[in-house]
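Tokens help. Consider this.
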Amino acid sequence: MKELVRPPRLAPGARVAVVAPSGPVAEERLQAGLDLLRGWDLDPFAAPHVLDVHGALPHLAGTDADRAADLQRAWCDPSVDAVICARGGYGAQRMVDLLDWEAMRAAGPKVFLGFSDSTTLQEAFAVRLGLVTLYGPVAAGVDFVKNSRAQEHLRATLFAPEAVRTLTSTGTALAPGRARGVTLGGCLTLLATGYGTPHTRSGARGGLLLLEDVGERPYRVDRTLTHLLRTGWLDGVAGIALGSWAQCGPYEELRPVLADRLGGLGVPVVEELGFGHCDGALTVPFGVAAELDADAGTLTLATPALS
């Protein structure tokens, strides 16, 4: 697995587009997120359809075509330095095939930030654009607007990424050891359901896989991990870092599932690295070379997330 191209870091005055490729967005939280970005001396704006709600499918932020158009227009706008998702939810899989990847490649590298359902887009950015993306708090998310830890870590990643090159676990090693590779990952369910589609990698070989999920009972996590094992998607993975498992049942019931399904891979596995659907979620880059030390509970980036 090769390192991907790192976009430039942000500077005061950078123009930031907020898009909604997935679920509908609460206007009050969107405005709070935009205000926070302005407080960071950025110049944010909401894409035209961010507050849309699909007439027949209210779990979507407007039509697939409009959500795709917002993302593509923002990405291809030469005045835009970063594109940030407003929230996760569901819907990115429905619009990712509508994007003009040739036009987006021609627009050059810039920051893309999302999480949860945006895993679909981050895989596509890696496959189609060869570009590092950020997995962290999104513009209309509770963590983004209310949690100082999440805010400070994201802000450092955007403006001074060399200051946040090591993430430290609050848990223990599920499997000991040390490994090097290129980071990839996101939401477990989205990675599994993307397998076999044109915009998702065929496997995690040579990678340091970062996994988390939300709202999946332990048996469902078992089922999804088993699927990835049976397909061979996990063959050759260098190491695994686990984030949060919010609303996935009591952790004492989930932990044995993670240990059982991942412990047999013979690679280091560290838990509770502090990214995902958790309070104070840290921002992690996908596509950067890193070292995972499961015994020390650390993930250390070989280079800053952004150039």
